[in-house]
Amino acid sequence: MSDGTGAGSGVRARPRLTVLSGPSGVGKSSVLAELRGRDPELHYSVSVTTRKPRPGELDGVHYHFVDGAEFDRMVDAGELLEHAEFAGNRYGTPRAPVEAALASGLPSLLEIELQGARQVRAAMPEARLVMLAPPSWEDLVARLTGRGTEDPAVVERRLAIARQELAAEPEFDEVVVNDDVRSAATKLLDLVVGPLPGA
Q: What CATH number is associated with residue 82?
C-alpha cells in the first residue's frame, strides 16, 4: 500500500499510468471531480463512447461522444489503448493523449471499466490498477436504485455486472473504499502521484 509520502510531500515520483475502475454507482465521477480541484497538473484521460450524453455532460469534457462508425474506425486504426462494451454501449481510451502525458512527465489517470482495465494491464504491465469500492453491497444497491434515471431492468443488469467487477478485486493493486468523497480522493491522489512501493 502507499506509505502516504507522495501527495503531501510535493515531490513527484516518476510519471505512471493509474487505472481507476469500480462498479457503476460507486461514485467514480464524484471522486474524480474532487481530485481535479486538488491537482490540476494530473492528466485525466477523456474516454470515447457511443452512448448518448446524459444531462449536463459536455463533449470533450466528460466524454468524446461518437457514433458506432467512428468508434470502429478508431479501433481499426489502433487509436485506442483499450476498448470494451458496457451496458450496451462502447467505451475506449484514446492512446495518443496518454502516451503524450507520460512522455512529458505528467502522471495519467484513466477511469475505465473492468474489461478495459484488464486490456491496459496486458498492454502496459507497469500501470497501477486501483478499484473504487462501495462501503457495502447494500450501499451500492441503494445508490443505483436511488438514481431514478434508468428502468429496473437496466439497474438489474448494472447490479449483475457490479457483482462480477467486485469479484475481480484480487486483480487490482489497490482498493479505495468510497465511504467519503474527500477521503477517497485524498487516498487516490496519493496513489497516483506518490512513490511506488519500494521506491
A: 3.40.50.300
Task: State how far the Cα of 163 lies from the Cα of 70, in Å rounded to an integer.
Answer: 31
Q: Is 25 among the annotated ligand-binding positions?
A: yes
Range of the domain at 88: 17-193
Residue 29 marked in a binding site:
yes
Q: How many domains does the chain have?
A: 1
Element housing 43 (H / E): strand 43-44
The residue among 95, 93, 91 whose CA lies nearest residue 68 is 91
Q: What is the pLDDT of residues 80-133, one digit of tens each?
A: 999 988 778 999 999 999 999 999 988 899 998 898 999 999 988 989 999 999
Measure the CA–CA gap between 188 and 86, rounded to whole angstroms.
24
Q: Per the annotation, does 27 bind a ligand?
A: yes
Give the cell for residue 150.
434508468
CA dist., res. 164 & res. 136, Å (int): 15
The grid cell for 26 is: 460507486
Distance, in Å, from the CA atom of 36 to the CA atom of 189, rounded to the nearest integer, reads 10
Q: Strand 48-49 vs strand 128-133: parallel, antiparallel, or unpaired?
A: unpaired
Residue 140 lies in a domain: yes
- Whether 23 has a binding-site annotation, put simply, is yes
Instruction: Determine contact, residues 108/17, Cβ cutoff 8 Å.
Output: yes
pTM of the model: 0.81
